């Protein structure tokens, strides 16, 4: 009725006297298992798990209890026997597997948004640390005061609070995903340093164009710190939209409305802070000259293009995003 392509049908007699390796080979090739004993059901599930499969099992009888317990996800119904319900991970309250399908999509969306937050945070922090190391080996003054860093991180974290409401690409939802710490680390190392290029160009712009080269130039140092605060905060907000999908942001994919709204609001706050007296004094900032905003637009545009090229390279090398 569902047009299931059947490779082979395995019954009880086909599994009698076989060792685990033989059962595993049969389990990977067969489509239908019929009239199996409770132990044989468990053997088949165990064999599939050994072949790096994630196995679900649906059952409602006493004979299904061992298999329900052995499966990665045991599914039963509210009219099942008590032992079947106790062995199951999920109990359906209605006759519909669409609940499972909806749960899978929700789970993959939750996983994807969690990964977004993790890779955004670690890649951004990695880039900032790298920029700080460069600054400490060159500049005779702090590129940002501690209060600037704390404020920048606070605003960035606030902008990320809307990520749970973000959507995932359909391609991502169509396949299962597994937690992979190595993937996170290589993402951090590969994608993190790109922002440092534009942090360093900001250093150079302030150093040569404005001539801020001495720690004794207090107004100049304050201008330098305000400029890097603004550039760093806006690149962090831009990276949210760049990293959230392997596609081209704003063209092939667009974030959910809450994510866009939070990015716009935080961007306005970042740009407005140097012009609001109470915050300017509290954060030790100065108003930025118009020429800096021309540089800022160019830097953000170049950053967008460079990170898109980096995404293409990353996908060609590793064949996956996260």
From TrEMBL:
Coiled coil: none
Domain Cation-transporting P-type ATPase C-terminal: 141-312
Record field: transmembrane: 187-210, 222-243, 255-276, 288-306
Gene3D superfamilies registered for this protein in UniProt: Calcium-transporting ATPase, transmembrane domain, HAD superfamily/HAD-like
Keywords, ordered alphabetically: Cell membrane, Magnesium, Membrane, Metal-binding, Phosphoprotein, Transmembrane, Transmembrane helix
Pfam families referenced in this protein's UniProt entry, alphabetically: Cation_ATPase_C
Membrane topology: Multi-pass membrane protein
Protein name: Cation-transporting P-type ATPase C-terminal domain-containing protein
Subcellular location(s) per record: Cell membrane
